[in-house]
Every structure is written in C-alpha cells, then in structure tokens.
Amino acid sequence: MSEFERIPSIKKAPDEEYYVPGHRTCAGCGPALCYRLVAKAAGPNTIFIGPTGCMYVANTSYGCGPWRVPWIHAQITNGGGVASGIETAYRMLIKKGKYNGEQPNVIVMAGDGGAVDIGLQSLSGMLYRGHKVLFICYDNESYANTGIQVSPTTPYGAWTTFTPAGEVIPEGRKHFPKDNAKIVAHGHPYLKYVATGSIGYPVDLMNKVRKGLAQEGPAYLHLHAPCPKGWQFPPDKTIEMAKLAVQTGMYQLYEFENGKYTLSVQLKERKPVIEYMKHQKRFAHLKPEHIEKMQAFVDAKCAEVGITVPVVAAAQ
Amino acid sequence: MSENLFAEPNLKQITVWARGVLQNKDARDVVVALTEAAAQEDKYVQAWENYVDLPDRVYVPVRAYAKISPDPIDSRYVYENDAPDVVVLMEETLVKNDKILKGLKEGGILVVNTRRSPEEILNFLVTNGNLGTVVTVDANSMSTAVVTLDGAEGATDATGIGAGISAPVAGAVVKASGIVKLENLEKVVKNPAAMRRGYNECQVMKLDKIEPAEPVKEETAWDLLKRMPFAGTVDSPVSENPGMVTGNWRTRRPVIDKEQCTECSTCWIFCPDACITRTDNGMEFNLKYCKGCALCEATCPSGAITMVPELDFKE
Ligand SMILES: Cc1ncc(C[n+]2csc(CCOP(=O)(O)OP(=O)(O)O)c2C)c(N)n1
Ligand code: SF4
Ligand code: SF4
Ligand code: SF4
Ligand SMILES: [Mg+2]
Q1: Interatomic CA distance for residues A254 and A244, integer angstroms
Q2: With a cut of 0.90, is the ipTM above it?
Q3: Which one of A24, A55, A56, A203 makes the best mutation probe of the B interface by having the most chain B beta carbons within 10 Å?
Q4: What is the pTM of this model?
Q5: Choices 3.40.920.10, 3.40.50.720, 3.40.47.10, 3.30.70.260: CATH for B12-206
Q6: pLDDT one-digit tens code per residue, A191-221
C-alpha cells in the first residue's frame, strides 16, 4: 500500500466538491451523500463507473450529470468488467508511453443490486484478476430506482413492493440478508482491502476511500446509505438512521486486512434494534416475535466481527 | 381556411402537480376519481402519470393528468397535457414553480391545497394571462394524506381511491369547474365526507382579465433531443449542474443564525446536495439547488439552523 493523506476531522475535510449541486436524487438521499463524500475523498484524478441504479438514473436525468470528473455508465451487471477495462487501458497506455498523466483512481459506484446480486459475477471476476480498482457498493437495501423491490441486502422483516406483509407471510421479507463484504473478503486471493463504512461516519468513510485507493490492487468498500423513499422515513432523518444502524449493531463498521477484523467505532454498549427499526415505515407491520428474531440475528452478526458490548435499552 | 383536423374542442384537460413520493398517491387519486366519475356519465376518459417525472423522488414536482371528453379522445397517445383547463396543486409552494400555468386555456382554473386565501396565492403566480379562477381548499384539515408506494410504478394498490387529501381537492375541482356531477364523484371516493367539505368550504375567486407576465422560456422536446447524448459524451460541470436545478423542490428553506453558529462544519459535511459552502462570512446556502431536506437543521449541534416555510419569502 502506498501512503495516503488521512482526513483528521470533519472541519479539516477538503472544501473541493467533485459531485456538485444539481441532481435528481431524493431530498435527503443517503446514496447521494455517499457519492459526494467518496468524490471528495478521491479528488480530481478519478474516473467513476456507474452501473444502472438510482445513482445512475437520478444523477443523469436528462443528458447531464453532477460529476466534475469523468463518469461512465455500465450495465447493472458489469460494473467490475467495465472498470477492469478502463484500469487496464490506462496502465497499458502509460507503460507504452502514450499517456503522460498518472494512473487515475478507478471507482465503481454500484448499488446493492449491482454489487451483491446481478453484478456480483463481474465484481468477483475483477477482484480475482487483481485489477487496481476500488469497487464500492452503496447499500440502500433494495432495488430502489425501479420503485423499491427486494434485493439480497434487504433486511429481514422489511416491506418492499415484492415483499408485502400479509396473512401468509406476516413479516414481509422472510430471508436474512447476504453479507457481501464477507463473501468478497474470504474468496479472492488478490484482494487487498475490504471495509464497511457509513454516511453517518463521514471522516471514517472518506479515509477508507483513500486507503482503498492507496492499495496496489483491488479494494472493496460496502457503504451503508439510508434511503428515505424506500425505507419510508422523513428526509431529515437520513443521518440519524445511519448512526442508529451502527449504534444498534444492525450495521457493523470494520476493516478486514490480512485475515483480521479491526473495528472502526468503539461502542460502549449497543442500543436494541427496535430503536432503529421504529422510525422506518418498512418495519411498521412487525410483531414483537419478529423484532426478537432480528435482535438475535444482529447479536450473532456483531459477535462474528468481535462486537461484544451488551445491548442496553434506554432508561424509560 | 381549412379546419384544424386535430382540434378537440370538447376535450377537458386536468393537470395535477404534487410532491414526489409523499403525494404521489393522492395526486394519482385526484385524476382517477375525476375520470371514474366522468366515466359514469358516459364520457371518454384517460388518467395517467407523467413518465418523465418517474421514478419519483422525495419532493420532486410530479404531474398526474386527466382527459375527459364527450367525444372519442384522438390525442390519447399525447402523454403530456399541453393546454390544461384545470391545474391542481396538491401542495402550496408549487405556486413558485413558473411552469405550473404553462399552456393554461383562457379562463382556466387553478385549485390549490392551502390554508392561505386566493389573494395570497395570486401574489406568487407567474401567469400567461389566461387564469380565470383561483380556488383554495385546506385539504390537510379535512383529511389525512395517504403516503404509500402502493400503486407506484406498477405495484399493486389495495388502498382504495380518494381516501386522503385527494377527496377534498377533487371536491373543490368539481365546485369550480362542474366537470362531473357531485353525486358521481361521491360514488367513487372512499372519503365522501371530506370530498363534500372540499366542495362546500373551498374559496373561489373569479379574476378580471390580468396582465400576462413574460412568457416562460422553456426548452422544447426538440431542443432537449438535440443536446441529448447518444452513446456520446457531455462536458463535466465545474461548480454546479445547471441542467438539473432543484431549488423548486423545496417547501421550507434553511435559515441560519450566524450568532449561534460555531462553524463546526457538521451541516456542511452532511448536505447530500453540496448546497452549503464554508466562506469567510460563515456558512452560505445555495438556494438555487437546496431541496429543503432539513438534514442541516437536524444535524446542527448548536440549533443554529431553522427551516422556514418557503411562502414566507416572495423570491
Ligand atoms: C439487466 C437489467 N435488469 C433490470 C434492470 C432494471 N433496473 C434499473 S435500475 C434497477 C435497480 C438497481 O438496484 P441497485 O443496484 O440496488 O441500485 P439502486 O437503484 O438501489 O440505487 C433495476 C432493477 C436493468 N437496468 N438491467
Ligand atoms: S430512492 Fe433512495 S437511493 Fe434512490 S434517489 Fe431516492 S433516496 Fe436516493
Ligand atoms: S436543507 Fe440543508 S442539507 Fe438539505 S439540501 Fe438544503 S442546505 Fe442541504
Ligand atoms: S452545523 Fe450548525 S454550528 Fe455547525 S457550521 Fe452548521 S450551522 Fe454552524
Ligand atoms: Mg439498491
């Protein structure tokens, strides 16, 4: 890994924007903030690849876009493939003396559909071949752009248009989510760096972007990005949702390097998952037994990465 | 002189503007309720949403349309209403959007869901001089908005028609336009009591001929097409993307009290739309693009930001 400049605090974060005002994302869109922070951390020598999803469609309506740096659309299936080609092309042009600039940062910004489901093969191929690309999944926990359909990262118990709650399936979504950071981390010998991040922790997120870009090979970031439309909470609660996800352990922040998990936030205790779920209408239909099932699942997920602090309910 | 073969003199167009996601269902219900009532009177009808506005995003202005005619509708594949007889605003700050009255027919009607009076509403309008009647109805006090993604983009909808603020709004439309019979509208809405309140309690103001304002300059579909890239490239913006100005999404605007601000930069880092700039003069807000999400207000640790209703400001 080469050196990189750490951002010490919110106040000392760079002023320059590379994802500028003027995009058709929802008011309070978590993935839009995620894009802005990633672009801010990456800086001017960057090329973005945007597989289909909200962060393609909402950003490019119509015939224009908010990126100050080059951006290219990829199919939802093949962000990793397009990035591999771009990275290789620059490397070869530089090697043959046909391009005098520095190798650009090549970053894929894929949704959970484009990273965890329909684009997973292309991501895996890119990691396996060892391309120097930062692949980012902004996780809004659904196929959001097409009107909020279930994806493999949709939480247990969440309403989506494909998992309505009813008499037969009272919890709506029956499955527990796929864990892409771990799928990716444990099966790709040339992968250098894996981390999870959250828009609720912007300094940590931006430093993980810089660290990912400083690797000599592929890196993968899984970034939690609450979606007011799909999760059905008011747009001014996006940051509160992001923080509560981490404080309840619903979403765990860590880095994975050399076979080891390092926690990024030291929690003193965890809040019960209901503290997070109660603000989102997608969970409004759940019964106490469903919440218990969710709590047990989250407890196990936390233990997996070494979050051992107790769950403490707020004093009444 | 040859007759205009495409003229549809008896066709009525209704255009409903609303805020994306939060009012999509109620906007759709207004056009569906009115057209279903008209169908009971053996009219030809169409009700649909503007595909260009989809997928809808939180607060983005969206349009739902109705066409109602005693004659077969020849223009049924023209999917935007170009010359509405009635324009409906499901939310009052949409009056600041200079496109809402575009193409309005002479003597056209504007119906606004607001607690304010027609006179107040008139203050904000950019009109083409054709506006004949302004109607206000305080629908939010008569019914509760139905916020749901059911029925959006092909999803099923079992929530029924006209249960929310669509009912009083549709009632006010009928009062001002007589476009359908009240008893037929009553048959199709789920909340007929609220519908009747909208009909009875709305304020109707007839206008004298008013001075036309400057016509709204807008790109035609052809202009858009010409600059639309196809498997090509467009230039990157530098400081803003003028192709997607989002300031008119806002229903409230952030106002900062610089005395209370500690310049901690929290609001700045969390604005998804990069609408806050750190300057020598403190935090500056970019109202050309600010969508009014209120994340800045919610995250400020000092309580220095307050969201103020957009109609408290003329500009
Ligand atoms: C092969 C293919 N299937 C389906 C679609 C339709 N589609 C467009 S965007 C989208 C949702 C993508 O979800 P995700 O990757 O999670 O991004 P999000 O919209 O949630 O940001 C889908 C299904 C498509 N573009 N291509
Ligand atoms: S649906 Fe969700 S991800 Fe898509 S633009 Fe809206 S808030 Fe952002
Ligand atoms: S309300 Fe605040 S956070 Fe939201 S877009 Fe406007 S300036 Fe940004
Ligand atoms: S968050 Fe509040 S105190 Fe901090 S810079 Fe913004 S307005 Fe000032
Ligand atoms: Mg998604």
Answers
A1: 16
A2: yes
A3: A24
A4: 0.96
A5: 3.40.920.10
A6: 999 999 999 999 999 999 999 999 999 999 9
